[in-house]
Amino acid sequence: MKPSTKLLLGLPALLLINSGYAQKILKPFPKNEWHVERSNEASGNSYTSSAFRKNINYLPNGGAVAAVDFNKGECGAARIDEKGKTLWEYKVKGEAVGISRMKDNSIVFYSNKEIGNNLFRANNRVISSTVRAAIINTESGKLVKDILMYDNGERIKIESKPLNKPDGSFATLFVRVTDTDGDGYTIKKLIEKTLASPKILIIGIDNNINPKATEIKSPGQQGFFVGAELGTNDDLYLSTILDDQLLAEQFNSSGKLVNKLTVPLAVRTSRNIASLTSVDPKNPTSLFLALDYNTKDKDVVHQVFEFNFKDKKVSGTGEQDLNKAYTNSFEEVEIKELRNGYKSSNMEEYQLSNLLINDDRIIIIKGYQSALSTDRSTHYQNGKVAIEIFDRNWKRLKGITLDRRFELYDPECRSIGATINNGKLYTIFPGFSGLARIETLFAQLDLSSLAVDKFVVLDNPYTHSSTRGPVVESDASIWLKDGVLMENCGDESGFFSAKRNVSSFWQKIEY
């Protein structure tokens, strides 16, 4: 299947009708001097995981409030309507780690992260000691109260993540304190220190807008942290790797252990462990977990698990060698406008991006990415997008790769945006169609027929010819009932500048 339809901008609105498919593109609003904050903290170990997921909060009456980066060390929140228009902005000092909602207020959680002077500190030398919450009136954008959620008392790496209910309302703040202080770590020791969790807390907010912290005790704290999600009855689902076991635990809101499930997992700890975690939003009785890792006697393998706490059982795909045979099991879909021909050798080079669950499908999305860094910038090379689909009994239904190719410098961004709506899987991501020409790709997959029924290039005249952008930041997209708001962001600080000044504009595509 090689559709050749190209969507053109340039008019205030353009309607494309092709084989019964209608798509409407609206002219973008004026440029914003901010962009949705990319926050990897406590979202799994994979730096390619859905980093924006907890920084976007959908409102019941439409639109969303997002945790944003205003550049120059300021973060905060912004509310936008369903057309991408900014309704208000609120700034704080620090770095946003998540967004939530409580009654008529929105909450932006932020930390006092700084860049340390020690080359061997974990996570690019980022250190922190506190997590705060700015309670903001959702209608007016005015501050209601700013509260200290947690203070560790010393500068060290802290990961924090708001765990929200399916409707976006706040349940608890997950905080994981690591043990990365010290000098001269080997790479293996650094990984161990970064993923160990001497202290884990869940922190709620009472009716008087005061925090209440509860410490969690788990044997997995001395192992490797994998992920944390909100389960049924606002329980915490915590996953770790310890002593050749993958451990999943269920704690209630009081911090009491309710359930525990384990499965053997022999991991070579000297290599990175990439992970994604998720729950079924309609029935969160299971923790779903996708892992890419090195076994003790093999190269990179891939495996997806379901820890069903209700039935007390573990199921999944089984261990899959990411070899040539596995790579060849994917059906490739191309689009002729793109500069195709980029070949990645096998699935070892693909990185986890999305894990989506609905009533009858489990979907894993990966993308190829490699990076070459200098002291001033990073060059990213991106290849195909791989989509693997299973039914809820873990029967593999299909593997598909969507062809693309592009290379660019900072900002790294370039994620893969995806959602499930009315039996369709929608994805958006940037692609390369010519010399210094980066386009936006839109792919629509029918989850019943398992066919890609639309794969098009959205030609955007607002896209700058520079490889620094603006380019669609796919995973920062706002997925609405009738379409998607895409954030196009780019670095305007200068091609050779080490400082980032990222601005953005929103563009809406209606399905």
Brief summary:
The protein is mostly beta strands and 511 residues long. The chain contains three helices and 40 strands.
Observed structural traits:
511 residues, globular, mainly beta
Written overview of the protein:
With 511 residues, the protein is mostly beta strands. The chain is 4% helix and 54% strand. The chain is built from three helices and 40 strands. The strands form eight sheets. Strands 2, 3, 37, 38, 39 and 40 form a six-stranded antiparallel sheet that branches. Strands 27, 28, 29, 30, 31 and 32 form a six-stranded mixed sheet that branches. A five-stranded mixed sheet has the order 1-36-35-34-33, with no helix packed on it. The protein is globular and about 60 Å long.
What's the total count of β strands?
Answer: 40
SS class: mainly beta
Rg over alpha carbons: 22 Å
The helix tally amounts to 3
End-to-end gap: 20 Å
- Give the strand content: over 45%
Helix content: under 10%
Morphology call:
globular
- The pLDDT mean sits at 80
Low-confidence residue ranges: 1-23, 42-49, 115-125, 463-467
**How is the main sheet built?**
6 strands, antiparallel
Structural topology:
Elements: E1 6-8, E2 13-18, E3 21-26, E4 35-36, E5 56-58, E6 64-71, E7 74-80, E8 86-93, E9 95-102, E10 105-111, E11 114-115, H1 122-125, E12 126-137, E13 143-156, E14 158-164, E15 170-177, H2 187-195, E16 199-205, E17 211-216, E18 224-230, E19 236-242, E20 245-251, E21 257-264, E22 274-278, E23 286-294, E24 300-308, E25 313-316, E26 320-321, H3 324-328, E27 331-333, E28 350-357, E29 362-373, E30 378-390, E31 396-402, E32 406-408, E33 417-421, E34 424-434, E35 437-446, E36 451-459, E37 471-472, E38 478-479, E39 483-491, E40 502-510
Parallel strand pairs: 1-36, 27-31
Antiparallel strand pairs: 2-3, 3-40, 4-6, 5-6, 6-7, 7-8, 9-10, 10-12, 11-12, 12-13, 14-15, 15-16, 16-17, 18-19, 19-20, 20-21, 22-23, 23-24, 24-25, 24-26, 28-29, 29-30, 30-31, 30-32, 33-34, 34-35, 35-36, 37-39, 38-39, 39-40
